[in-house]
Amino acid sequence: MKMERLMHDVFDVTDELGPDKVIHISKPAAGLKAILVVDNVAAGPAIGGARMAPDVTLSECARLARAMTLKNAAAGLPHGGGKSVVFGDPRMPSPQKERLIRAFAQAIGQIEDYIVGPDMGTDERCMAWAKDEIGRAVGLPREIGGIPLDEIGATGFGLAVAAAAAEDPSGVKLDGARVAVQGFGAVGYHAARFLAEHGARLVAASDSKGCISNSSGLDIAALAQIKSSGGSVVDLGKGDMSDRDAIIAADCDILIPAARPDAIREDNTGAIRARLILEGANIPATEAAERRLHGRGVTVIPDFIANAGGVICASIEYHGGSESQAFAAIEEKIARNTTEVLARTKSAGMTPRGAADALAQERVRTAQHLRRFG
Ligand code: NAD
């Protein structure tokens, strides 16, 4: 009983879906301290990123692992969900980081139902080191067969696909739509770029330094150039400058939170003018905020439906597919899921989050029933 309560305190997500296993790794000689949570493997070996930060926790790792179970199941991938965290400063000198990642890879080498990918604090190079050690990793450099998902804009492409599939149910037509992006990084930039191909225009963009807006449209390529040389969106000029959080209230049709968790909360939903929200970041809105927006008639496409482009791309890479196959799979899966989630939202009177959760959980449970030991 006491143990049960402890498990619940540690994991908000301990239930019949998982976690399948939790592994604490400590190799003092290598300076390695890490945690791996394999949440669920009913659909196949878990795919999930390795996050490196000094202050990561078991609870965070478990929540992220569950989110991957739902995301991978919703996307219909032959993979379960997992996540790992490595304690350390991701900006440590490269030789030290290489030693740490190689030691981490060795430590998870025997856990064959976990496939590691990049996440905050780790990148393609880290995945190349992991692959070199244990023969499996996703999110690899192009030179060793990888599909560089941030470079090609896999997640941003998926967001645009979701927006296209939501045109009728949300009433937001992409041609002429005004778009605001919070967090003009890999996800936000490519989302703006792909939406522009449908005739939308970027009218506001923010990053950690501030927000810039221009109702006639911002130059997306120029913004990307500034960001890739280490600048901020506010360096663009040719627009109105404001505080970074002003983006939430931007006068737009589509808002894309693509920066941090909980950017949209009950206390700021009143300021939102968009009619469609595409969740680019993971958990960028609280559930209470999502419910309130739903009540106001704002369509919110939940994170693990809208931002699954990256993991779909990783899965295609793992199975030896090409870049064009990755784009085709993202298009097919995200369009179908967005349509289904919004149809269920209407027919069952649920929020899109509720509909997406139900859809993903049904798929995990079906996969579990097909396994001998669930
Ligand atoms: P990134 O580092 O390339 O870009 C993040 C951007 O957000 C940067 O421009 C940064 O300046 C900005 N930012 C940071 N704090 C901010 C704040 N408080 N307000 C406004 N802007 C802020 O990261 P990314 O790869 O684009 O990922 C963005 C988010 O999406 C992350 O939460 C990530 O976990 C999530 N995500 C990424 C992918 C992917 O394929 N890259 C897939 C799914 C989810």
CATH architecture type of the largest domain = 3-Layer(aba) Sandwich
Please give the largest β-sheet. Answer: 7 strands, mixed
Major sheet strand order:
9-8-7-6-10-11-12
Any idea of the CATH topology of the largest domain?
Rossmann fold
Characterise the protein shown here:
Residues 1-6 have low confidence and may be disordered. The protein folds into two domains: 2-67 and 80-146, Rossmann fold (3-Layer(aba) Sandwich), CATH 3.40.50.10860; 154-309 and 336-359, NAD(P)-binding Rossmann-like Domain (Rossmann fold, 3-Layer(aba) Sandwich), CATH 3.40.50. It has 14 helices and twelve strands. The protein is of the alpha/beta class and 374 residues long. Strands 9-8-7-6-10-11-12 form a seven-stranded mixed sheet. The chain is 43% helix and 17% strand. Bound molecules: nicotinamide-adenine-dinucleotide. Nicotinamide-adenine-dinucleotide is lined by residues 149-150, 155, 182-188, 206-208, 244, 258-260, 280-282, 307, 310.
Kindly summarize this structure in a few lines.
The chain is α/β, with parallel strands linked by helices. The chain is 43% helix and 17% strand.
